[in-house]
Amino acid sequence: MSTPRRRRVSRRFLSTGLAALLTTTGALAATGQPAAAGFTRWVTPTSASYTDVHQPTRAFPVAAGEALPVGTWEADGDKHTSRAYFSFDLTPYRGKEIISAELRTGETSVDDCTKPRELELWRTDTPADAPTWADAPAVREKVGDLGATATHCPAGYLEMLVTTAVQRAVDEGRDSLTLMARVAGDHEAGKHFGRRIEQPGISLRANAAPDVPGKLTVSGLACAEGLRIGTTTPTFSAEVTDPDKADGFAGDPVTATFAWWPVDHPEQRTEWTSYSRYAPARFTYSVQPGLMVNGGTYAFAVKAADERAASGWSPECRFTVDTKAPPAPTVTSTDYPSGWNWPGHGGVGIPGRFTFTAKADDVTGFRYGFWGATTYVAADGPGTATVSITPERDGPTRLYVQTVDRTGNRSPDTVYEFIVRNTAPTVTDGNPDGRLGQARTFTFAPNMTDVVEYVWQLNDGPEHTVTADGEGRATASVTPTTAWNTLHVRSRTGGGLVSGDAAVNFYVRTEPLVSSAQWPLDGSVGAPVGTKGSFVLKPGMDGVTEYVYSFNWGEQRTVPAGEDGSATVGYTPESAYYHSLQVFSRTADGVESATADLSFEVASRAPVAESTVYPRNATGGGPGVPGTFTFRPHPDSAGITSYVYTFRGEPERTVEAGPDGTATIQWTPNSLDEMWGGWMELQVRARTADGVTTDPDFYSFQVDPLSPMVSSDVFVWGGSATVGQTGDFLFTAQLPGTTEFVYSFDGGPERTVPADAAGTARVSWTAESAYSHDLTVRSRTASGVTSGSAYYSIWIDQG
């Protein structure tokens, strides 16, 4: 028997086309429609098989991914006619709306592409096992023609809508859907119409109504029989879930509709629908003020909906509004009686019983606390409760207590005031001046009765216990190893009561002790500038071998300690007033003390400068004008033999003092220092025969510039001169002996013009441009003495 001619499609094409999709199972996200209801899954057959008329009693199940023959085909010289069966599981879609179902497959081979494709799809009963030709399942209806319009051959992609068939099977309550593929009519026996197809899959989008909302709450309280709430504006809450959800994906967008009504007036029903959110989600709704009243009983229910279906209403949740606050409680305690009665009662760590009482029938408990009513205790009887409270601090104390009723309403605070006695022991330091590392004895005295022992702890070290004597007192030897320390001491009675903590802070001095005969460290003024003095350094701790010091936070220096641990450092101050000394000590083991930061004041012995021509802090003289300056010694200075002085920008000079200690100098400015606006500074120090130099006197004064005067009849600021106009400027000297003027326009090159016998000159100028211009003028003598500058502003109109 001859082998029939077959056309086969390239496997490479199929591997990149539908074939890969057809072997995929699971959910497909409905991308492109994120707000649409329903969820799309790719459903593959639970079983696939074919039958063969040539072997009518045999079934041919195939593995996943294996193609199936449909129509007539030949093999080994035998003729075969086959039909393919595919079963799909519908149990996940019970009760759901089938929005769309599209079957997709593809041809792997076709016997003769010149013949039309006549593939039919039929719905059959679902067989218990893979069917045979002889016992094929009953055919129920034709679903449609598969790939009737496909143009390629073989067609790697064939599709058909099977929505109606799937919906009908779901509506009939079937657990599965079986589809049969066959070649139509008499052509089924014609081998030229035969082909092989891939196992199909169905892209199935279905939607179920959201679940009935659950976990209803009212203002955070779960719905229950006899529920009462303490507000007329409650917030309702419900949880909404939706069956259309795959692992790792959000469910459908859903809304929640809240309905509420007075139980005795159901016709006054109010409904509100939320915005949509992806399920699962908790929705809330708040009742607006003025709609509910105290004492009213209300009910609410919730239903959910997606874009295609809605759930039923949830069971209603009933509640009663009760906003009446219970009465404030009374508070009593025999352990800690009310009132500011010193020295108080009990003590830190000593528990006391407090009884709360409220006259109301619906009291369920109380809230209490020292910093607000935060701790809840249930009532242990009708309107009463007793609690044990242990104070954690002594002194005046306030306990805040509220009554809580069955609704959760709270009363106003009752503030119970009392005093907790200070039971911490009294601690006395037997050696307050002890050094670092030296043992010192502390004495403990009780502030409560029947004290039998003390527990003490230095800083964060271990605890120690010491037994009390017959009077309840004890001593302990404590050795501090740091400068700042806290000694914690608590007493304990024979009954095991522990007192409050006596936290005693003490400081162990380690910084050196410093003294000076010349510069006291008590704030008084010491020796003057230039005095050669010294500072004596004594140890503030044991084992000191050296000191590290600096003056005025300058360079650090080291000086060794003597056998007694002390040292002396010299100092000669070069300036007056405040100075500082920083010094710490160091042992041979490298242990350093704290730093002593000390200040002292050096007396000023600055001389006094005087001048009548150039008075202090005033304007006088002028360029070329000589001035006499007199230097006088400080009233407390003696033996002044000379003065060292300098004018800013000039070299330092020395002048000898007369027998009375004064000196006189002459100084004449040749020009004005315009950078400083004519202001000049003179520094002068006095010096003794043995070379001691005082601090300086700073003498400031301003040299009169003697600038020339400038005027113009044409060019006046704010005037009407225009571009191209020419006019004169008149210069009038104020500097005696002026022979010429130096001037420039707009910062340009300087020019000179001679002065006449009256000390004046004229300069002609033509305005070449509009707006602002300026003129600068100085006068000068034949010997080169120059005045200060005169500045003249000019405004030119555009014309």
SSE topology:
Blueprint: E1 7-8, H1 11-15, H2 18-22, E2 26-28, E3 39-43, E4 47-52, E5 60-61, E6 68-75, E7 78-89, E8 97-105, E9 107-110, E10 119-124, E11 139-146, E12 158-161, H3 163-171, E13 176-183, E14 195-197, E15 201-207, E16 214-218, E17 221-222, E18 228-229, E19 235-240, E20 253-262, E21 270-273, E22 277-278, E23 281-286, E24 297-305, E25 317-321, E26 330-332, E27 352-357, E28 363-369, E29 375-378, E30 384-389, E31 395-405, E32 414-420, E33 426-429, E34 440-445, E35 451-458, E36 464-467, E37 474-478, E38 484-493, E39 502-507, E40 513-515, E41 525-528, E42 533-538, E43 544-551, E44 557-560, E45 567-571, E46 577-587, E47 596-603, E48 608-610, E49 619-620, E50 627-632, E51 640-647, E52 653-656, E53 663-667, E54 679-688, E55 697-703, E56 709-711, E57 726-732, E58 738-745, E59 751-754, E60 760-766, E61 771-781, E62 790-796
Parallel strand pairs: 18-25, 41-47, 49-55
Antiparallel strand pairs: 1-9, 2-3, 3-15, 4-5, 4-7, 6-7, 6-14, 7-13, 8-12, 8-15, 9-14, 10-11, 10-13, 16-17, 16-19, 19-23, 20-21, 20-22, 20-24, 24-25, 26-27, 27-30, 28-29, 28-31, 31-32, 33-34, 34-37, 35-36, 35-38, 38-39, 40-42, 42-45, 43-44, 43-46, 46-47, 48-50, 50-53, 51-52, 51-54, 54-55, ...
In short:
By secondary structure, this protein is mainly beta.
Protein architecture, described:
The chain has 799 residues and is mainly beta. It is built from 3 helices and 62 strands. The protein has 7 domains: 201 residues, no CATH class; 108 residues, Immunoglobulin-like, CATH 2.60.40.10; 77 residues, Immunoglobulin-like (Sandwich), CATH 2.60.40.10; 77 residues, Sandwich (Immunoglobulin-like); 88 residues, Immunoglobulin-like (Sandwich); 96 residues, Immunoglobulin-like (Sandwich); 88 residues, Immunoglobulin-like (Sandwich).
